[in-house]
Write a structure and sequence with these properties.
CATH topology: TATA-Binding Protein
CATH class: Alpha Beta
Order of helices and strands: HEEHEHEHEEH
Oligomer: single chain
Number of helices: 5
Radius of gyration: 18 Å
Largest sheet: 6 strands, antiparallel
Strand content: 15-25%
CATH superfamily: TT1751-like domain
Distance between the termini: 26 Å
CATH architecture: 2-Layer Sandwich
Structural class: alpha+beta
Strand order of the largest sheet: 1-2-6-5-4-3
């Protein structure tokens, strides 16, 4: 019984992953895993869905490189990247609703560390804002993106 209690406490305090914010535009999760672990897990979660990452955005590298020229002294991120990918099935569904929905692809999931909270890695994505009668496909895409982030954070 003592060992079971220890294991329960260990998992509650050692591996924490939680949804910290969700509004109409953005969903944000937070994990205490390392940046590299989250990056690898997110890559795997995306490919586990049969998708290919079409681009990796090195956000913090770009911001740090350009900050001096723009007279910006405070770094928003300790480290930040984002993966771009698309689902052919979801793309077809949203484009059938309205061809303007092409602008919602590729999907992007960002992952970053804030300088003032370097013990956490945040994962965030934009929720789809689609044209036409798109409530059903918007909900499907939203659930799909949540499932990828949850898998990357060890929740299945």
């Amino acid at each position: 019984m003592k060992n079971l209690l220890f294991l329960l406490i260990f998992f509650v305090f050692v591996v924490q992953a939680e949804l910290v914010s969700e509004n109409n535009l953005i969903a944000t999760y937070r994990s205490n895993e390392s940046f590299e672990t989250i990056k690898e897990n997110l890559q795997q979660a995306i490919t586990n869905k049969g998708l290919i990452i079409s681009g990796t955005l090195h956000v913090s590298d770009m911001l740090n490189r350009t900050a001096k020229d723009l007279n910006i002294t405070k770094n928003a991120y300790q480290k930040a990247e984002a993966f771009e990918f698309c689902s052919a099935m979801l793309s077809h569904k949203m484009i059938q609703v309205n061809p303007l929905n092409l602008t919602a692809c590729p999907f992007t999931i960002a992952f970053f560390v804030k300088p003032e909270e370097n013990q956490y890695v945040y994962l965030a994505f934009r929720k789809p804002q689609l044209a036409g009668e798109s409530k059903e496909i918007s909900q499907e895409i939203n659930a799909f993106l949540h499932s990828i982030v949850k898998e990357a954070m060890g929740e299945f």
